[in-house]
Amino acid sequence: MADVNRGNRPLSPHLTIYRPQLTSITSIFVRITGNALLVAALMIVWWFVAAAAGPDAFVTADGFMRSWFGDLVLFLSTWAVWYHMFGGIRHLIWDMGYMLDVDKSETAGLVMIIASVLMTVLTVIVV
Fold first, then answer.
1. Which domains does the chain have, with CATH numbers?
2. How confident is the prediction for the chain on average, in pLDDT?
3. Which pTM was predicted?
4. Quick check: 109 pLDDT over 80?
5. How far apart are alpha carbons 56 and 32 in whole angstroms?
6. 108 near 93, Cβ under 8 Å?
7. Neighbours of 108 (CB within 10 A)
């Protein structure tokens, strides 16, 4: 392999000057919320399995689910469901070739954020 003299240049100079864009941040959060929903789903499955296992196991699981931490996880999971869904809709629109301009993509990102927050509040109030 050829010996390339790189000098004192960093390997990835673009990382030092890159400014994250709204579209990239919202897309990254779609991936993060997808993984976070797996954790919430496992927590809910644990609650169901504990209910089937008996009263002692259910008291432990139910106590955790009804604690402030369990409430926080379930509230954030509600937001993650809405956010992930709106992100999926946005990606479907992009896949069809629409809203690929920078200004329209950023508008779609803002709509996605605002809609997910509003739907979360509405879900918590109604349910």
1. 14-126 (1.20.1300.10)
2. 89
3. 0.81
4. yes
5. 34
6. yes
7. 23
